[in-house]
Amino acid sequence: MQFYHATPKIGIVQSDIVLQKYSGFVEARDMYEAKIEQYKESFEIQKELYESKKAELDLLSTSLKGDALVKKEKEVEGMKVTLLKLGAQIEEHSKDREAEIINSVYNKVNDFITRYGQNEGYDVILGATGNGNVVYSSTPVDLTEDVIEKLNKEYRNGI
């Protein structure tokens, strides 16, 4: 008994290009960058306030004595600690938010490519990242532009 095996339908998607051109990723990245800019501005305001109080302390340190000097030094040191904590919180939140956005986009793209492959009759779709995992493909199996077009259409339609 002989079995007939059809040649599998295989396609390649250039993952990095899909992400660069996916409207959902571009929009999410822009929103993320705007939020980071707000954090930076907030941090800069706090930093300027701290630097102003530090300069004030430096000027007054010769005229202030005893408890007044200690109180002013504690106030400035407290501002410094608060500023450092704020910087650490901003950095941590930024990393968390970036990871959340990236994971969300990857999940949406991977889900779309799975559905695309099923709808278009592909047996295998390989992701090319530019790191050498796919070293050659003929143009007909490169699905990147079609995937980008349909993925963005789906995104615009709110699916």
UniProtKB/TrEMBL annotation:
The lineage of its organism: Bacteria, Pseudomonadati, Bacteroidota, Flavobacteriia, Flavobacteriales. It comes from Joostella atrarenae. Belongs to the Skp family. The keyword Cytoplasm does not apply. Keywords: Signal. This is OmpH family outer membrane protein.
